[in-house]
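@channel sequence for tomorrow's demo:
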Amino acid sequence: MAKPFSLCVYCGSKPGHDPEYAKLARQVGQWLGSNGHELVYGGGSGGLMGIVADATAEHGGRVFGVIPQALVEKELARSSCDELKVVSTMHERKHTMAERAHAFLALPGGIGTFEEFFEVWTWRQLGYHNKPIGLLNHQGFYDGLISFTEHSLHEGFMGEWQMNLIHIESDPMALLERLQHQAQLA
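structure tokens (generated this afternoon):
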């Protein structure tokens, strides 16, 4: 069995319209649990967040959730986490998650997922951490975002080295293995 590590997963607090998103979240959670790893996530019980947490727990993994007090009822905090940390602010939530994790993964989601992904990417380019970051572009979900960042690169607002700080894959298992491997090297 591989050395355990903690993976911070950013994803939707809603399930999305396509059942493939739920399937994807279950696959990620199953991989985490089956390998004895820990999920670090936003602590909610709904949407893809709840699905990945449930699958992680069902397959023997540890679930560490972090949720601001103001969202405990709104996002329906998952009380069955192995550890649920209730914090005061979103900033404290994101900081706690980043500190705990060895790597980061963005699944499909909305504005909160985008913001979290961009923040850890920004922190990486500034040298605040050296942890791997993955963007799971399942069924082209992030094609528009990738195109936009490439446009920013082409227009001279980013460098190629910044794009190289993230791993973009469409295959969840390949990306998970890559993030785990890179985390062990960091």
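heads up for whoever presents: The mean pLDDT is 95.
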